Amino acid sequence: MAYTYESYDVAVVGAGHAGCEAALACARLGMSTICFTVSIESIALMPCNPNIGGSSKGHLVREIDALGGQMGKVIDKTFIQSKMLNQSKGPAVHSLRAQADKSEYTKQMRLVMENEENLTLKQAEIVDILTEDGHVTGVVTHTGGIYPCRAVVLATGTYLRARCLCGETITYTGPNGLQAANHLTQALERLGIELVRFKTGTPARIDGRTIDYSQMTEQKGDEQLVPFSFTNRPGDIERDQVSCWLTYTNEKTHEIIRSNLDRSPLYAGVIEGTGPRYCPSIEDKIVKFADKDRHQVFIEPEGLYTNEMYIGGMSSSLPEDVQYQMYRSVKGLENARIVRNAYAIEYDCIPATQLKPSLEFKAIEGLFSGGQFNGSSGYEEAAAQGLIAGINAAMKLQGREPLILKRSEAYIGVLIDDLVTKETHEPYRMMTSRAEYRLLLRQDNADLRLTPIGHDIGLIDDERYNRLIEKSDQIQREIQRVKNVNIGAGHQVQELLEANGSTPLKTAATLAELIRRPELNYDVLAPIDPERPSLSKEVTDQVEINIKYEGYITRQLHQVEQFKKLESRKLPQDMDYSQIRGLRIEAQQKLNGIRPASVGQASRIAGVTPADISVLLIFMEQYRRGHQKDI
Amino acid sequence: MVKDTIAAISTGMTRSGIGKVRVSGSQAIEIVDRIYKSPGGKKHLRDAESHTIHYGYIYDGDVLIDEVLVLIMRAPKSYTTEDMVEIDCHGGVVVMKKILETVIKYGARPAQPGEFTKRAFLNGRIDLTQAEAVIDVINAKNDYALASSVKQLRGSVLEKIRHIRKNIIGSVAFIEAALDDPEHINADSFGEELKISVDENIRELQKLLDLADNGRMLKEGIKTVILGKPNAGKSSLLNALVGDERAIVTDIAGTTRDTLEESINVHGILLNVVDTAGIRHTQDVVEKIGVSKAKSSAKDADLIIYVVDGSTALDENDMEILEMIRDRKAIVLLNKIDLNLVTTKAILEEKTHHPIVEISAREEQGIDALEELLKNMFFDGNLSFNDQIYITNVRQKTAIADALESLKLVLQSIEDQMPEDFFSIDLMNAYETLGTMIGESAGEDLIDTIFSDFCMGK
C-alpha cells in the first residue's frame, strides 16, 4: 500500500561519503532535506582502506573543507596517524594522508548528520524515482512510502545490485555483508539511464594478536601534524599516534597464487565488472608484473578499539582456503587468523557522460548524482562529488547558477570534468598527473582558491571568510615586501650565506632573489631581514612558495589564460551536431553523445580534433550572429 | 607559453615577381620590428602609422635575408582585424621560407591551416553568408596538412620521433607513479638519470632540426623518376646528385631491381627521386616486379629524367620510353659522353622535344648544367608541386624547436635542483609538441603508461 509522506526540497539516496556531503550541503543551504540509507549504523562507512587522503586525494579533502564540506573536520577528529606524503618533492605534490579510526569516523559523521538542522535521516531502501515531464517529483521506499521532493541526489555507492565474490562463493550483498539495493536499477533503466557494471576489491582483515610485528618495519606518523581542515590549527589536533607496519610478499606467496589462479573468479571469467588498474588485486599484480619477486604489504590498524588489521596491498577474490595459505606465507603473518575474508565486489553505476558538469542528469531535471555511482573510486572522490551535487541541487531550487569548478581552479574541477567528459572504463581515481595546472592547485592554498567561492555559495560564514581575506592580504603584502628589500653584500650577509652553503653575493640582491636559491629559504634569512613583520607559518609558507617557484607559476598562469578562452565559450544544450556541416562524422557522434557545456569541454572529448573545434567555433559565431538578428 | 601571433606565406611558392609573408596578432608589429632595418637604421615599425609602407631589409641577427617592403595594418582595420604586417619580399621559395622562419624564430608561430580566414571570420570581418565557405577552406587545408604532415615525414624521422616520445613518456610515468604512490616507488635523485636521457633526446632532436634545414625531413618534394634501359647509368646519376653511394652501382645490367628513393636538395628545390629498375622486356621474375614498379612510378611523377646510354644505339626499349614520356614533363640526359657516342644529341633531338643535357654520370660531368636546368624549369613555373610542403616543413621544424626548448627547460630544472615533479611539466610539453607534429594527441597516454609500467597498489 502506498502512502504519501511529507515533502522535502531534496532527497539524498545513500549516506556514504557522497551522500553525507550532499545532504549536509543542501541542509546548510536552507533546503529541507531527507537522507535515506539502508543502515543508519553504516553512515560514512569505510568498507575498504582505513585511511583518508593520500596523493591528490588529500588535495580533494582540503578542497572539500575549503568549500565548507565536512570530511576534513571529521577526519581531523578521528585520525590515529597522520603523514604528509612527498615532503621531499615540490609543494604541489605534498599530500596529507591520515589513518582513521573507522568506527569513530562513522560515529562522528553520524553525530553531525543527526544534529543538522533541516536534515532528516531515514533508514529505507529507495526503489523508484518519480518524474513528471522529465522532471523529478519524488522518491519511493521499499515499504511503499512516497516522499515528494523537488530534487534528488543519487549516491548509491557500490550497493546497486551488488554481489561479492570470494572464490567460488558468491553472496548478493553490498560491502561488509550489508543489504544490497536491488530495485533501483530497474527504475533508473525505465527513466532511460544507461548503467554499466564496475568491480573493486578489498583485502582481508587479520586479528592483530596473531601478527608477529617483530618481523616487520614500523611506519610511524609525522611529528609535525598538519590538519585537513583549515579551521583547525596543528595544536588542536595533537594526540598519540599508532603505527602501521610494512612487510613483503615472497616467491612462495606468488607460487600459491599462480597455482590457484583457475579458482579466481576474475581469471575464471566469473567477474563481469571492470576493475581499476590502480589498485589491482594481488593476483593481478603477480600476473601483470611477473618479474617482480616481491610486493609491499602494509598492515594498518582499523581503529583503536579493535584488533582488526587491514592488509594493504593484498586485495583478492581468491577462495578462503587459498587466502589462508597466501596470507600465511607472508613474513610476520605465519600464524595469522583472518577475521574477515578478502573479496571482490561488483555493482551497477553509470557512465557519468550522462551528466552535466553540475552533476545533474542531462535528460532528467532535478536528478543529480555523486560518488561511486558516477563511476569513481575512493572515499575522497565520492565526498567531493557529493558536495558539488548537493550544492547544485540547492542552487537549482534557489534559481541560482550551478557551481562548476574549472580544471584550473580545483582538483574537484578536474575530477568532475574528466568524469562527465571522458568515457571511463574503470573506476576513476584522482591522480596528481591528471591535473594539468597542479602547480596552482596545491593542497596548501585550497582555502585561498575556494573559500571565497564557498562563501558566495553560502557554506562559509563571514567570520571564516574575513579571516581568509586577512590572510590573503598579508601574503600579498609580504611578497611585495621581499621583492623590494635590498640585501647588501655586507659581512653578516656573506657569513649567513656561507653557513648555509650558498655562494656569497657579488652585488646587492633582493630578498626574493635569495629565497629563490635552492639551498635557502624564507626562514633562514630572518637574521638579515630586520624589518620582517611577525606572520603566521601559513602566511610565510605561501610567501616562500610564491617566490621560489614564481617562474613556473607564471607560466602555468599564462596557460590558464589560454585555457579559459575556450572554457568561456558556452555551447547550447539543444544543439544538433549532425547538422553542422564540416564536422567529421566521428566528432558529430561524440558531441551529440556528450553534449559538452563549453567549447573547452568539447576539445577534451576523445575523437574531437582541433580542426573540429575550429569548425565548431565558426559555427558558433554564425549561430551567435544569427541569433543577434532575431533579437 | 602559448604564442598567439601567427605567420604564413600567402603567395604561391614559385618565381612570381614578389612573395608575401603575412603576420597577424597582438605582437605582429613588435615581432617584425625586431627583424626589420630601415636604410638609415633609425626607423622603428612600432612607431609606424596604420596602412603605411616601409622600405628596408629583413635581418636574422646580423645576417641579411632580403630587401623588402613592409606594410603595417593596425587593428581593427585589417583582414583579421588584428594587428597585421605584410612583408613583400623577392619571390622565390628560399627567400620566402627564410623570412617565414625568421618571423617564427622571433616570436610568431606558424599559422594553422586556414587560420587567417578563421580569425577574420571569428572577429567579424567576414560576412555571415560566407561561413560555410570558411569551414570548407579550413577543412580542405587541414586535410591536406594532416596528410602531408605525417605522411610526408620520412619513415626514419617518424621512427625517431616516436622513439623520443616513448622515452619521454616513460620518464614522466616513472616520476608520476612515484608521486602517486611514494611508498612503493621512489624517484629521489632521478634527476641525474633523467639528465642523461634528456641530453640524448636533445642531441637527436638537434639532428632532426639540421635535417629539416636541408629540407630532407620530408619525403615528398617534386616527385621525380629516373628512367632508362638497364645499365644506362641511372644509379650513377643518382649517386652523383646525392653525393653518396646509396644506390648499388655495378656494370651488370639489371642490378637495381627495386625502386630506391632519395631526396635531393637542388638550389633549395626538393626533388624526391625514385631510381627505377631499367625498362626492358625481361623473364626474371624479381626484375619483372621492379620494371612494372618503374612504369607505375613514372605514371604519377611530376618529372621524369630519362637517361640514355650514349654508348649504345637506341633500341625498342628506348622507343617505348620515348613514347611514354611524350606528353610528360621530362628531361633527357645523354649519358656516357666520356665514351664513344653511338647515339648523339642530334639523333635524340629528332625523337623528342624535351630538353637534352649531355652528361657523364660516372665522371660527374654536366651535372651542373642539369641542376641549372632544373632550377630554371622550377622558377619559370614549368615545374611545380604543391607548395604547402614548405609550410609543412616549417611547421614541423617549429615543433621540433619548441620541443627542444622544453627539454632545455627540463635540464635547467635539474640544474636548479628543483624537485622531481617540476621535471614532468616541461617533459609533458615536449611530448605533446612532438605529438602534434606526427598527428598523435596525448590523450590518456600518461595514465596508461603509468599503469602498464608500474605496479601501483593499495
In short:
The complex is a heterodimer of chains A (631) and B (458). Chain A has 631 residues and is an alpha+beta fold. Chain A is 35% helix and 17% strand.
In the residues of chain A, how many domains can be counted?
Answer: 4
Strand order of the largest sheet of chain B: 3-4-5-6-2-1-7
- CATH architecture assignment name of the largest domain in chain A: 3-Layer(bba) Sandwich
* Name of the CATH homologous superfamily of the largest domain in chain B: P-loop containing nucleotide triphosphate hydrolases
Write down the CATH topology of the largest domain in chain A: FAD/NAD(P)-binding domain
Strand count, sense and barrel status of the largest sheet of chain A are: 8 strands, mixed
Write down how many β-strands of chain A occur, each being a DSSP E stretch of 2 or more residues: 23
CATH C-level name of the largest domain in chain A: Alpha Beta
What's the tally of helices of chain A?
19
Q: What is the quaternary state of this protein?
A: heterodimer
Number of separate strands of chain B: 13
Q: What overall form of chain A do the CA principal axes indicate?
A: globular
Order of helices and strands of chain B: EEHEEEEHEHHHHEHEEHEHEHEHHHH
Question: How is the topology of this model organized?
Answer:
The complex is a heterodimer of chains A (631) and B (458).
Chain A: E1 3-4, E2 8-13, H1 17-28, E3 33-37, E4 51-53, H2 57-67, H3 71-78, E5 79-85, E6 95-100, H4 102-115, E7 119-123, E8 126-131, E9 136-141, E10 145-154, E11 163-166, E12 169-171, H5 184-190, E13 196-202, E14 205-207, E15 217-219, E16 244-248, H6 251-259, H7 282-288, E17 296-301, E18 308-312, H8 320-328, E19 338-340, E20 343-349, E21 367-369, H9 379-397, H10 411-421, H11 446-457, H12 462-484, E22 486-487, H13 491-499, E23 509-510, H14 511-516, H15 537-548, H16 550-567, H17 585-594, H18 599-603, H19 610-630
Parallel strand pairs in A: 1-10, 2-3, 2-10, 3-7, 10-21
Antiparallel strand pairs in A: 4-6, 5-6, 8-9, 9-10, 11-12, 11-20, 13-20, 14-18, 14-19, 15-16, 16-17, 17-18, 22-23
Chain B: E1 6-9, E2 18-24, H1 28-35, E3 36-37, E4 52-60, E5 63-73, E6 84-90, H2 93-105, E7 109-110, H3 115-122, H4 131-151, H5 155-180, H6 190-213, E8 222-228, H7 234-242, E9 260-266, E10 269-275, H8 285-299, E11 303-309, H9 316-324, E12 330-335, H10 345-351, E13 356-358, H11 367-379, H12 388-415, H13 420-437, H14 445-453
